[in-house]
Amino acid sequence: MEGDGEYNDGHRAFVQAFMARGTMTLQEAKPVLASILTVQEGEPVDAVQITQEIFDSYLSAAQEALSRLDYDIKNTMHQVTKKRVWAIVNTTSDAMTQLATVHSAEEIAFVKRVLDAMFDKYNSPRLEAMFLDSMQYHKCCRAPAAAPAAEAMDDEGEENQPQQSQQLRGLKSSEAEAMMQSMVNQGWFERSAKGFFSLSPRALMELRSWLTDTYNDPDAEPGEWQRIKFCEACKDIVTVGQRCAERDCNVRLHDHCEEAFWRTKREKKCPKCATPWDGKHFVGERAVTETEAYRRSKGHRGSRAGRSSGLMEQIMAPDEEEEEEEEQEEQEQLEDE
Questions:
Q1: What class of enzyme is it (predicted)?
Q2: Cα(26)–Cα(284) distance, rounded to whole angstroms?
Q3: What CATH number belongs to 93-143+170-217+224-317?
Q4: Short-list 119, 132, 255, 238, CA closest to 191
C-alpha cells in the first residue's frame, strides 16, 4: 500500500474527508484511508491494514497542501478519552472571526457570553469548572444592556450628540439550544455523558492564544493565579485534570500526563510550591461532581432535573469573597480607563 509520494486524488479525498469532520483520530481515519486505498489499488483494503505510518504520510501531505491556504494540522490528547486528536486549524484568523462567517451577530455574542461564563464566572481559585449545564447556558441568552455611547468631538472641538450603539436582541431559549447543538455538531463544543458542555480539543487548539489573551491578566505577578492554565508536563491547556491543593498555585496536570510526570520526580509534591499532591483536587467536571453536595444529590429520587440544575448553580456560583474581588477589579479597570 502506498501512503506517500506525489500529491494525488487520494490525498485530495483525504483532505476533503478531514475538513468535513474538522477533527480526526487514527481510528476514525482508518476506514477513510481504507476506502481511498481500495479505489486507488483496485483491490479491497481493510481498515485494520491502515497503520500509524500510513496515516502520518497522509497527514504530512495534507499539511503541506493546506499550508498554502493558511491552515495547519495540529494534534493534542483528548483530556477525557485520552486518544490523540488531529485538527485542521486556521493560522490567520481567530475562531470568532471564522464563526462569524456562518452565524449571526446575535449568535456570536451568545457564544462569547457562554465562553465568559465558562472561563470567567465559573472558573475561580475556589472552583475551576470551565463547563456549563443547560440552565447555565440559558442564562447567557439575554444580551446585556448597551452602554451609553461616548460623545464625539467635531473638527472644531465641540461635542456632538452621542451616537446610539446598536443593541443586540439576544437569543430565545429555543435558539440558544439550537446554537449549542450547532456548536457541538461543528466540533467546537462537546457534551459529556452528564450533559455538561465544554470546549472540544479542536476549540482548545484553535482558541489557545485567544483564551489566554482574553481571560489571563498580562500584568499579573509571576505565580499569581490565572484563569487559563497549562499542563506542567505537556504544556497544553488544562480544562480537565488535576490541580495543586494550594488554592492560589497555578500548577495543573492532565490525567493522561500524571503518571509519566511523577515518574521523573523524587517525591509527589507540587514542583512550584512543594505542597503534597494528593490527586483529590480537580479541574473540570470532577471539581463539581466530586463534591459532597453533588454526591448527596445523586441519592435523591423524584424530580431531579430542576433540583440538579439548581444544585449545580449553588455549587459553582462564585462566593461572596470572589464577587467582591471581581467588583474591585472591574472598578480598578474603569478607573484606569
A1: transferase
A2: 26
A3: 1.10.10.10
A4: 132
